[in-house]
Specification:
Blueprint: H1 7-32, H2 39-69, E1 73-76, E2 80-82, E3 84-87, E4 99-100, H3 104-113, E5 117-121, E6 131-136, E7 142-147, E8 154-166, E9 169-178, E10 183-193, H4 197-203, E11 211-213, H5 227-231, E12 232-234
Parallel strand pairs: 2-12, 3-5, 3-8
Antiparallel strand pairs: 1-10, 4-7, 5-6, 6-7, 8-9, 9-10, 10-11
Protein backbone atom coordinates (compact mmCIF):
# COMPACT_ATOMS: atom_id res chain seq x y z
CA UNK A 1 0.00 0.00 0.00
CA UNK A 2 1.15 3.53 -0.74
CA UNK A 3 1.41 6.41 1.75
CA UNK A 4 -2.09 7.65 2.62
CA UNK A 5 -1.62 11.34 1.77
CA UNK A 6 0.19 13.67 -0.59
CA UNK A 7 2.25 16.60 0.68
CA UNK A 8 -0.80 18.85 0.56
CA UNK A 9 -2.86 16.12 2.17
CA UNK A 10 -0.38 15.86 5.03
CA UNK A 11 -0.74 19.60 5.71
CA UNK A 12 -4.54 19.31 5.70
CA UNK A 13 -4.36 16.24 7.93
CA UNK A 14 -2.14 18.11 10.40
CA UNK A 15 -4.75 20.88 10.63
CA UNK A 16 -7.40 18.21 11.13
CA UNK A 17 -5.46 16.71 14.06
CA UNK A 18 -5.12 20.14 15.65
CA UNK A 19 -8.87 20.69 15.26
CA UNK A 20 -9.64 17.31 16.86
CA UNK A 21 -7.45 18.19 19.84
CA UNK A 22 -8.83 21.73 20.13
CA UNK A 23 -12.50 20.96 19.57
CA UNK A 24 -12.85 17.48 21.12
CA UNK A 25 -9.97 16.42 23.36
CA UNK A 26 -9.25 19.72 25.11
CA UNK A 27 -12.89 20.58 25.93
CA UNK A 28 -13.43 17.05 27.29
CA UNK A 29 -10.39 17.40 29.51
CA UNK A 30 -10.83 21.01 30.59
CA UNK A 31 -14.57 21.42 30.99
CA UNK A 32 -16.19 18.02 31.40
CA UNK A 33 -13.82 15.41 32.79
CA UNK A 34 -11.15 17.54 34.47
CA UNK A 35 -11.70 16.17 37.96
CA UNK A 36 -12.35 12.58 36.92
CA UNK A 37 -9.60 10.06 37.62
CA UNK A 38 -10.62 8.01 34.57
CA UNK A 39 -10.73 10.93 32.14
CA UNK A 40 -7.90 9.65 29.90
CA UNK A 41 -9.66 6.34 29.44
CA UNK A 42 -12.42 8.30 27.74
CA UNK A 43 -10.47 11.05 26.00
CA UNK A 44 -7.71 8.93 24.45
CA UNK A 45 -9.90 6.38 22.63
CA UNK A 46 -12.16 9.11 21.22
CA UNK A 47 -9.19 11.20 20.07
CA UNK A 48 -7.37 8.22 18.55
CA UNK A 49 -10.47 7.09 16.66
CA UNK A 50 -11.02 10.56 15.21
CA UNK A 51 -7.34 11.08 14.37
CA UNK A 52 -6.93 7.67 12.72
CA UNK A 53 -10.23 7.77 10.80
CA UNK A 54 -8.85 9.55 7.66
CA UNK A 55 -5.88 7.16 7.50
CA UNK A 56 -8.14 4.14 7.97
CA UNK A 57 -10.42 5.41 5.20
CA UNK A 58 -7.56 5.65 2.71
CA UNK A 59 -6.14 2.25 3.65
CA UNK A 60 -9.60 0.70 3.26
CA UNK A 61 -10.00 2.23 -0.20
CA UNK A 62 -6.51 1.13 -1.26
CA UNK A 63 -6.98 -2.46 -0.08
CA UNK A 64 -10.37 -3.02 -1.68
CA UNK A 65 -9.42 -1.26 -4.90
CA UNK A 66 -6.28 -3.39 -5.25
CA UNK A 67 -8.26 -6.56 -4.57
CA UNK A 68 -10.93 -5.65 -7.12
CA UNK A 69 -8.36 -4.71 -9.75
CA UNK A 70 -7.08 -8.28 -9.75
CA UNK A 71 -10.37 -9.18 -11.44
CA UNK A 72 -10.29 -6.28 -13.92
CA UNK A 73 -9.60 -6.59 -17.62
CA UNK A 74 -10.85 -8.51 -20.63
CA UNK A 75 -11.86 -12.08 -19.87
CA UNK A 76 -12.94 -14.27 -22.79
CA UNK A 77 -14.47 -17.62 -21.85
CA UNK A 78 -14.67 -18.65 -25.47
CA UNK A 79 -14.45 -16.98 -28.86
CA UNK A 80 -17.30 -17.40 -31.29
CA UNK A 81 -17.86 -17.04 -35.01
CA UNK A 82 -20.75 -14.71 -35.79
CA UNK A 83 -21.93 -12.55 -38.65
CA UNK A 84 -23.48 -9.96 -36.34
CA UNK A 85 -24.65 -9.10 -32.85
CA UNK A 86 -27.16 -7.04 -30.89
CA UNK A 87 -25.79 -3.89 -29.25
CA UNK A 88 -27.81 -2.76 -26.21
CA UNK A 89 -25.19 -0.35 -24.87
CA UNK A 90 -26.21 2.68 -26.88
CA UNK A 91 -22.67 2.99 -28.22
CA UNK A 92 -23.94 2.74 -31.79
CA UNK A 93 -27.65 3.41 -31.93
CA UNK A 94 -27.65 4.03 -35.66
CA UNK A 95 -30.34 5.75 -37.71
CA UNK A 96 -34.03 4.99 -37.22
CA UNK A 97 -35.30 5.73 -40.73
CA UNK A 98 -35.93 2.53 -42.67
CA UNK A 99 -34.30 2.18 -46.06
CA UNK A 100 -30.88 1.93 -47.62
CA UNK A 101 -27.94 3.61 -45.87
CA UNK A 102 -26.62 6.40 -48.06
CA UNK A 103 -24.14 8.25 -45.88
CA UNK A 104 -20.62 7.41 -46.96
CA UNK A 105 -19.16 7.57 -43.46
CA UNK A 106 -21.79 5.16 -42.09
CA UNK A 107 -21.27 2.71 -44.96
CA UNK A 108 -17.51 2.74 -44.44
CA UNK A 109 -17.99 2.07 -40.72
CA UNK A 110 -20.27 -0.92 -41.37
CA UNK A 111 -17.88 -2.30 -43.97
CA UNK A 112 -14.90 -1.89 -41.63
CA UNK A 113 -16.69 -3.70 -38.78
CA UNK A 114 -16.39 -7.03 -40.61
CA UNK A 115 -19.94 -8.06 -39.72
CA UNK A 116 -22.79 -8.76 -42.11
CA UNK A 117 -25.36 -7.15 -39.83
CA UNK A 118 -25.69 -5.14 -36.62
CA UNK A 119 -28.73 -4.69 -34.39
CA UNK A 120 -29.23 -1.78 -32.01
CA UNK A 121 -31.70 -1.07 -29.26
CA UNK A 122 -33.56 2.13 -30.08
CA UNK A 123 -33.62 4.36 -27.02
CA UNK A 124 -35.53 7.34 -28.31
CA UNK A 125 -38.18 8.68 -30.72
CA UNK A 126 -39.93 5.35 -31.38
CA UNK A 127 -42.42 3.88 -28.85
CA UNK A 128 -41.79 0.46 -27.35
CA UNK A 129 -38.60 -1.55 -27.30
CA UNK A 130 -37.90 -1.43 -30.99
CA UNK A 131 -34.70 -2.64 -32.61
CA UNK A 132 -32.98 -1.27 -35.69
CA UNK A 133 -31.19 -3.81 -37.88
CA UNK A 134 -28.61 -2.78 -40.45
CA UNK A 135 -27.77 -5.62 -42.82
CA UNK A 136 -25.72 -5.92 -45.99
CA UNK A 137 -27.85 -7.08 -48.91
CA UNK A 138 -26.88 -9.28 -51.84
CA UNK A 139 -26.65 -6.14 -53.98
CA UNK A 140 -23.87 -4.87 -51.70
CA UNK A 141 -25.97 -2.14 -50.12
CA UNK A 142 -26.75 -1.73 -46.42
CA UNK A 143 -30.45 -1.79 -45.52
CA UNK A 144 -31.95 -0.59 -42.24
CA UNK A 145 -35.18 -2.13 -40.98
CA UNK A 146 -37.11 -1.69 -37.71
CA UNK A 147 -37.96 -4.84 -35.76
CA UNK A 148 -40.02 -5.58 -32.67
CA UNK A 149 -37.23 -7.65 -31.10
CA UNK A 150 -33.64 -8.66 -31.82
CA UNK A 151 -32.84 -11.82 -33.74
CA UNK A 152 -29.14 -11.96 -32.89
CA UNK A 153 -27.88 -14.79 -30.73
CA UNK A 154 -25.15 -12.67 -29.17
CA UNK A 155 -25.85 -9.51 -27.19
CA UNK A 156 -23.40 -6.79 -26.15
CA UNK A 157 -24.52 -5.43 -22.79
CA UNK A 158 -23.39 -2.80 -20.30
CA UNK A 159 -24.02 -4.54 -16.97
CA UNK A 160 -22.41 -1.85 -14.81
CA UNK A 161 -22.03 1.81 -15.65
CA UNK A 162 -20.02 3.69 -13.00
CA UNK A 163 -21.98 1.74 -10.39
CA UNK A 164 -21.01 2.33 -6.75
CA UNK A 165 -19.86 -1.00 -5.29
CA UNK A 166 -18.01 0.26 -2.23
CA UNK A 167 -16.87 3.38 -0.43
CA UNK A 168 -15.30 5.65 -3.09
CA UNK A 169 -15.17 2.77 -5.60
CA UNK A 170 -17.18 2.32 -8.81
CA UNK A 171 -17.45 -0.44 -11.39
CA UNK A 172 -18.04 -0.46 -15.15
CA UNK A 173 -18.53 -3.66 -17.11
CA UNK A 174 -19.47 -4.81 -20.60
CA UNK A 175 -20.35 -8.39 -21.46
CA UNK A 176 -21.14 -10.46 -24.52
CA UNK A 177 -24.09 -12.70 -23.73
CA UNK A 178 -25.07 -15.88 -25.58
CA UNK A 179 -28.87 -15.81 -25.52
CA UNK A 180 -29.13 -19.37 -26.88
CA UNK A 181 -27.04 -20.99 -24.15
CA UNK A 182 -27.96 -18.37 -21.52
CA UNK A 183 -24.35 -17.62 -20.61
CA UNK A 184 -21.86 -14.79 -20.56
CA UNK A 185 -18.96 -15.68 -22.84
CA UNK A 186 -16.76 -12.62 -22.30
CA UNK A 187 -16.53 -9.49 -20.20
CA UNK A 188 -14.53 -6.29 -19.91
CA UNK A 189 -14.46 -5.20 -16.26
CA UNK A 190 -13.06 -1.89 -15.04
CA UNK A 191 -12.90 -0.23 -11.63
CA UNK A 192 -12.43 3.36 -10.55
CA UNK A 193 -11.52 4.74 -7.16
CA UNK A 194 -11.78 8.26 -5.82
CA UNK A 195 -9.75 10.10 -3.21
CA UNK A 196 -10.35 10.01 0.52
CA UNK A 197 -12.03 13.06 1.99
CA UNK A 198 -8.75 14.69 3.08
CA UNK A 199 -7.35 14.64 -0.47
CA UNK A 200 -10.77 15.45 -1.87
CA UNK A 201 -10.71 18.83 -0.13
CA UNK A 202 -8.10 20.14 -2.56
CA UNK A 203 -7.63 17.86 -5.56
CA UNK A 204 -11.02 18.73 -7.03
CA UNK A 205 -9.75 22.25 -7.75
CA UNK A 206 -6.97 21.08 -10.09
CA UNK A 207 -8.50 18.07 -11.81
CA UNK A 208 -10.14 14.69 -11.41
CA UNK A 209 -9.39 12.47 -8.44
CA UNK A 210 -10.42 9.35 -10.34
CA UNK A 211 -7.94 6.49 -10.63
CA UNK A 212 -8.83 3.64 -12.98
CA UNK A 213 -7.76 0.06 -13.34
CA UNK A 214 -8.84 -1.81 -16.45
CA UNK A 215 -6.62 -4.86 -16.19
CA UNK A 216 -3.63 -6.07 -18.13
CA UNK A 217 -4.30 -7.92 -21.35
CA UNK A 218 -1.75 -10.26 -22.98
CA UNK A 219 -1.67 -7.88 -25.92
CA UNK A 220 -0.64 -5.03 -23.65
CA UNK A 221 1.84 -3.57 -26.13
CA UNK A 222 -0.85 -3.30 -28.78
CA UNK A 223 -3.67 -0.74 -28.77
CA UNK A 224 -6.47 -2.03 -26.57
CA UNK A 225 -9.33 -3.34 -28.68
CA UNK A 226 -13.02 -3.44 -27.88
CA UNK A 227 -14.65 -6.44 -26.22
CA UNK A 228 -16.33 -7.22 -29.54
CA UNK A 229 -12.95 -7.56 -31.27
CA UNK A 230 -11.65 -9.90 -28.57
CA UNK A 231 -14.79 -12.07 -28.59
CA UNK A 232 -15.85 -12.52 -32.19
CA UNK A 233 -14.17 -14.29 -35.04
CA UNK A 234 -15.93 -12.66 -37.94
CA UNK A 235 -17.17 -14.58 -40.95
Amino acid sequence: MSFPFSIIGIVIYAFYVVIVIAVVAFPLYEWILRNKSWKWRVIMPIALILISAPVAEELWIQYHFKTLCEDAGVHVKRQVVADGYYDTTGSGRGPINEGYITKKQAIEAYEASGFRFREYRIRYKLPGNKVSRVEKQKNGKWLLTIQDKPTSRYHLKNTYSHHVIGHRIKKSEWVVYDSKNNETISRDTRYSRYSNWIEGLWIRFIGSDQVRCSGIHPELLKPRKSLVDYTFEKL
